[in-house]
Amino acid sequence: MPPQRSSKNTSFFSVLIWIILAAVCIQGYLLLSRSAKQQAGPSAKPAATAPAGKPRQFFRLPDFRKKPAPPVEKAKPQPIEGGALNGRLTVVIDDWGYNRSHCKLMADIPAPLGIAVLPHLPFSNDIVQCALENGKEPMLHLPLEPHNMREAFEADYLLTTKMSPSVVKKQLAKILKEMPGVVGVNNHTGSQGTEDEALMTLILAELKRRGLFFLDSFTSDRSQCGVAARKLKMRIARRDVFLDNRNEREAIESEFASAARIAKRQGHALIIGHDRALTLQIIKEQVKKLQAQGYEFIGVQEYIRQYEYPGN
């Protein structure tokens, strides 16, 4: 019968085996950890700290913010066809107020115009309004005393040399009140009235006080308008050409050619015509023709500002 081992010896061997297994496991773990560190290579150095105050930049993002648009260059004035400026012309059309049928013809003329309206006529205020609506300059066509009475005028319609200063001022004030919107005045007839320095000084003083301009229609070569204006230190203008003393196309076109020659010679010319269908049609044609030839058309107020009557 073989000898039997005691239970004490069995327990000792079991503990010893567990201790050996534990040691093997610990040793294996240590070996694996060392191998992993060697494969990873030398340890990385800590990243350098960015200098104080300067944020660290990795790459620049594109700037998608809306940038202000570049300034728009203003359009330059177009040069006059044919080269340099040949001269400046101003056109005034007299005797409006008898009807309003020509308002459309006035509006179709592509230039500034002086529209001289007679007082106390059926359509005087309608024409003033038509002129304002179409960018023209409404004027009072003031009736003054002529040497020869060729028209039948109602009482006190004309300002005359025989009127007292108080009556002249009262009559002028009444007419201007009835025609609101006018910006200036020129004379209707008035060959005798404009020759009277006292009368013209009185009239021009009232116009200057009211801020209205004056154009001498120059119905007399002995006109004293320039003398009166000089005394008052007031700028005025004077007519150079009458277009339609003969109401014929050839004659009107010939007067336009004369005005163009004057403007080319002295730099400017002032033209007066009348409220007639033929005259208005030819003005429209001549404005386009002369603009293409290097002439500029300007308003009456601008004309007076630039070209004071030399008699002043």
**Count the strands?**
9
CATH class: Alpha Beta
Low-confidence stretches: 1-7, 40-62, 64-82
CATH architecture classification: Alpha-Beta Barrel
Q: From the helix content, strand content and strand pairing, which structural class follows?
A: alpha/beta
- Mean of residue pLDDT? 84
Strand content: 5-15%
Separate helix tally: 9
Shape: rod-shaped
The CATH superfamily turns out to be Glycoside hydrolase/deacetylase
Radius of gyration: 50 Å
Helix content: 40-55%
Query: Main beta sheet, described?
Result: 9 strands, parallel
CATH topology tier name: TIM Barrel
Cα(first) to Cα(last) distance is: 166 Å
State the domain count.
1
Series of secondary-structure elements, N-terminal to C-terminal: HEHEHEHEHEHEEHEHEH
Structural description of this entry:
With 312 residues, the protein is of the alpha/beta class. The protein has a single domain (87-306), classed as Glycoside hydrolase/deacetylase (TIM Barrel), CATH 3.20.20.370. Helix content is 40%, strand content 15%. It is built from nine helices and nine strands. It has helices at residues 7-40, 103-107, 124-133, 165-178, 197-210, 225-232, 249-266, 277-292, 300-306, and strands at residues 87-96, 114-117, 137-144, 184-189, 213-216, 237-238, 241-242, 268-274, 295-297. Strands 1, 2, 3, 4, 5, 6, 7, 8 and 9 form a nine-stranded parallel β-sheet that branches. Helix 3 (124-133) links the parallel strand 2 and strand 3. Helix 4 packs across helix 5, helix 5 packs across helix 6 and helix 7 (249-266) packs parallel to helix 8 (277-292). The longest helix has 34 residues, at 7-40. The model is unreliable at 1-7, 40-62 and 64-82 (pLDDT under 50).
